[in-house]
Amino acid sequence: MSTAEVHRQITADEIAHTFEEEATPKVDLGIYAFEDWIALAIFWVMALAVFLQFFTRYVLNDSYAWTEEIATYCLIGVVFIGASMCVRLSRHIQVDLIYRYLPHLAARTLSTAIDLIRIAFFGYAVKLVWVYIQIIGDESMTTINFPKNYVYYAVLLGFVLMFVRSLQVALQHLRQGYSILERPGAYDGFEG
Question: Which of 83, 68, 93, 95 shows the shortest CA–CA distance to 125?
Fold first, then answer.
């Protein structure tokens, strides 16, 4: 018995055909919502500010102090507005192990309670941020003469969007009769 490998000669056409794609995938921008585009725009402003900070510090050896503050405030906007994307897609961290061992009615009740608690939390956070803006919203940024209330309004917008999205998610769970906690496979595409 021979242990030598047998190789077949491959033609240039066969090699060229391996690079052909079967079908060009279609781009669907419809899956993105309002907050996705806002978070993306703020992210790019932040990225440009960080690049400008890097360029002025290490290339020009004379950094602009305001870029760090702008990048920090942009990061705040990206986090809070981006968090509403996670609420919409049910992608926040959650523990669903207990739901596998609970009877259907208990799991459904607990899942609905979680939805209601989330709605109440985001509603209360909206109120708290609004009160906070009323108290100290007129402060100026440290390095540039620009009001901080725009940053606070971005946080408020994030919480308002999270509140609205949590209402939508709760209604979706109510209509379909289960949530991601009860059937994670239905959301990930693993459940047939």
Answer: 83
